[in-house]
Amino acid sequence: MTDPAPAPADAAPSQGALSHAAPSHDVQRAHAEDQFADELAALARADQRPRPPRWRLSPWAVATYLLGGTLDDGTVITPKYLGSRRVVEIAIATLATDRALLLLGVPGTAKTWVSEHLAAAVSGDSTLIVQGTAGTGEEAIRYGWNYARLLAEGPSRAALVPSPVLRAMEEGRLARVEELTRIPADVQDALITILSERTLPIPELNDEVQARRGFNLIATANDRDKGVNDLSSALKRRFNTVVLPLPDSIDQEVEIVRSRVAALGQALELPADLEALSEIQRVVTVFRELRSGATLDRRTTLKSPSSTLSTAEAISVMTNGTSLAVHFGDGRVSAADIAGGLVGAVIKDPVQDRVVWQEYLETVMARRPGWGDLYDACRALS
User: pTM for this structure?
Assistant: First the structure.
């Protein structure tokens, strides 16, 4: 089997294995390599450090892309992830070895976000992705068949439909497997040979695909949701696991929510006055207190709801509130605009969570100075 020609190590980072259409106003969400093509190109020009085989950027430049910084030519690289630099460095260093990377954490800790940006910076292509679900079959990881050609011509390479993982192996790029623990255990184990032997057998053709240098895999999984399929010990050994934690401080979480809501608002053309949104602080405070089971001053113990109340959900609450303010208000987000999203985020179980929420309203929110408007808005909806 003839391998495709290798991509040059110094190729422009915006050039992926796929031919991506240029971003336009009709695209709701551009791929990371398209949205931040200018930053990736500036990093490639400034990057003089050694690059692993087929990487578009050096590990240092990949870390700068994720964490932000200012280049010598004055180009500002916006941070994509606000968190521990060491965690990001460990993840990048793993991808430069023959070990796959597993990003683990509770829902809403930016696992998918980090995975996408790592693939964009390393390979220039974040689209080689397998979305894990309970119905994901082995062909999503290995390969399938074009049955019309299979019946007409018999088994042949032309009739084979490569999975994103197989394509990444052939091209020496990063593949992504999202929600690995959602995939049935027997399908998960299809990765064992790929990750240990760096080979994907095709017994129907008496052939195999050997991974080219530069291939690796990023998987994400959460350790909170029920109904997940645990990884076998054999598969766990093929991964280096990096845990993405929740934000350390309320200020860090507020900044994450503010920056993401600002970016989403711009993409959705929601011209709200984001700099003046004191509501972000209140939403994040509610989420952190209910997550931890205590108020920020540790004076009151609280029950925690069944919902995860992640940073991603806080972003959703604020984005929805911004939409309400723009389309049905004066553009400035008020307590009434965020109350609906806040109640919906907390109450996932209509019985258990409602009791938790009512207790929080009466014992914390009702007695907190300056929170009367939010209490009244939430009380009216509860």
Answer: 0.84
